[in-house]
């Protein structure tokens, strides 16, 4: 049985495309509804909220570091407010921020598909942000005691 469609006007084409998209979404929602609800319940309460917070904090921190005043040491800009004279501490801080951002982003992207890997990347993100904050506190302490 052949179906002939008269697709002469843009309205008919748009209607057909929208109908196909709605049908695909309905099938996908029906297939994944039960498994998504079960997977979302397996995360600890507030886990995704913490990961979103880490994503926001790491992105904001990177933006502030880029915009702040800096000096060049060996051709690399080092922020002068907190890390003056501490280039290796700044490098470790930036690596920690990058790992926190990458882990949080990975967790949010894959938390429904690969639960175990999402938890691992989420915990690595938490640890990386904690180490970045420890480095920041140490840099503040070092800069205040050397004055």
Automatic annotation (TrEMBL):
The protein's name in its UniProt record: PGG domain-containing protein
Lineage of source species: Eukaryota, Viridiplantae, Streptophyta, Embryophyta, Tracheophyta
Keywords associated with the record: Membrane, Transmembrane, Transmembrane helix
Membrane-traversing stretches: 47-70, 90-111, 123-141
Organism: Rubus argutus (Southern blackberry)
């Amino acid at each position: 049985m052949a179906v002939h469609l008269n697709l002469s006007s843009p309205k008919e084409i748009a209607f057909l495309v929208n109908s196909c998209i709605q049908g695909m979404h309905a099938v996908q929602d029906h297939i994944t509804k039960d498994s998504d609800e079960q997977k979302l319940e397996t995360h600890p309460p507030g886990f995704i909220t913490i990961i979103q917070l880490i994503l926001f904090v790491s992105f904001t921190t990177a933006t502030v570091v880029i915009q702040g005043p800096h000096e060049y040491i060996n051709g690399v800009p080092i922020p002068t407010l907190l890390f003056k004279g501490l280039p290796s501490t700044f490098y470790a801080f930036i690596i920690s921020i990058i790992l926190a951002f990458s882990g949080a982003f990975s967790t949010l992207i894959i938390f429904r598909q690969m639960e175990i890997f999402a938890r691992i990347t989420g915990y690595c993100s938490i640890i990386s942000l904690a180490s970045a904050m420890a480095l920041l506190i140490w840099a503040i302490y070092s800069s205040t005691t050397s004055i």
